[in-house]
Amino acid sequence: MKIQAIAITALIACSTSLLAQWPKFREAGVPRDAAGQVQADARAPRTADGKPDLSGDWVRADRDPLPQELAGVVTARGQTTRSVAVEPPTTPFAPDATAPPLATFFDLGANISGGLPFTAWAADLKKSRMATNNKDNPDANCLPMGLTQFHMQPQPRKIVQTPTLIVILYEANYGLRYIYTDGRRLPPQGEPQPWWYGYSVGRWDGDTLVVETNNLRGAETGPFDGWLDVRGSPYSEQARFTERFRRPVFSKLEIDVTVDDAKSYTKPFTVRINQRFVADEEPIEFVCNENQQFRQRIKVD
Amino acid sequence: MITKTIALVAGFSLLMAAIPAVAHHSFAAEFDANKPVTVDGKVTKIEWANPHVWFYVDAKDEAGKVINWGVEMGSPNGLMRSGWTRNSMKLGDAVTIEGSRAKDGSNHVNARSVTLVSTGQKLFAASSQGQQ
Fold it and tell me: Is any Cβ of chain A less than 8 angstroms from the Cβ of B38?
């Protein structure tokens, strides 16, 4: 009887806890095996007009090594532990020798031999950003964090694809990206005012979605603009991004990003960002500025 | 079914445990990874809000004086995916916090773990220090 009572109490406690979670749901249109597991290597879906369908919820797949500035050893109550590595909530894909170097959230050029090809202007700017512990990283300040930081941020994102418009909804800082696929051309550089997300136009090259973006707010605009990664590798107002999206199997999205920005880099470079499909999971409301006080705490505002 | 649900929650905990906090503030600007601190106290205030959950505890220092500490955790979404809810910790609960202290020596901690003294249950075992 007592055991039964304990079991019931535990059940109620568990139920209460579950009710307080984000509502669970089972996503339709996902290939699953008999046990309900997603068949990750199943064929990628296609839209009614025959294009690969990139729609769905995605998280970044690759793990970053623990950044040096966060490395530390904590000894408390006689127990010593190393700092916790930053792990995106997913598992990496097998290495692909044919792919461009993998980007990391902290350093876009971490796997590029010799690092990013900075110009003197960009190297100085990055150095000054790191000297203040990246306090002006737009992500840290609840602002749009740039295309590559958005791709790598560990919070999930949802892609919604229509024939003429692809939208990416980011949980991180409630980011929102429009990619026009209705045949329009990129506006001339400098014609519209620059935007945080720039102006993006997409076209299909076989099964690859090629997205070009220009008219971005660059690092000239202000301290929170033009950040490619957490360590502050910059981009300028001249920057032009080309992103190639491929969904080779159901659960994998490959994004190859080419940055062409002669003011910041001596030559264009390309990095790979992999994302993994997550079923029955979705971005949740994230109103970042609700209680953001870190700048007051570190006394910069 | 219950077993499956629990397994699912446990799975989410493992998968989503390391939700980054530094993503929303610069950890290195505010905290020192090499300045560990352990605080035993009672919860006086909880701010279940974005971008990071903060709670406050009263703890006695070595001289017996009561000090109020501010403790930072991950985002509400990240904690929820790790199995926390806004009701997991209540005002008055005795807790033990282990984490990294503020660089400026103020009474702020970035939590690595939060343990409920009454049950020994670890409410939060993932630092918000690593990127998430």
Answer: yes
Q: Which residue has the higher pLDDT, B26 or A186?
A: A186
β-partners of residue A81 are: A74
> How far does A136 lie from chain B, in Å, by closest CA?
8
Q: Does B5 contact A at CB distance below 8 Å?
A: yes
Measured in angstroms, the CA of B17 and the nearest CA of chain A are apart by: 7
Cα distance between residue A105 and residue A103, in whole Å: 7
Model confidence at A36: pLDDT above 60? yes
Tokens of B22: 């530094």
Task: Compute how many other C-beta atoms are within 10 angstroms of the C-beta atom of residue A58.
Answer: 26
Structure pTM?
Answer: 0.86
| Total Cβ atoms within 10 A of residue B56 | 18
State yes or no: pLDDT of A13 exceeds 50: no
Please give the full DSSP string across B44-87, using - where no structure is assigned. EEEE--SS--EEEEEEE-TTS-EEEEEEE---HHHHHHTT--TT
Reported as type and span, the H/E element at residue A259 is: strand A252-260
Q: Quote the pLDDT of residue A68.
A: 62
Tokens matching residue A119 = 């110009």
As for the ipTM of the complex, it is 0.82
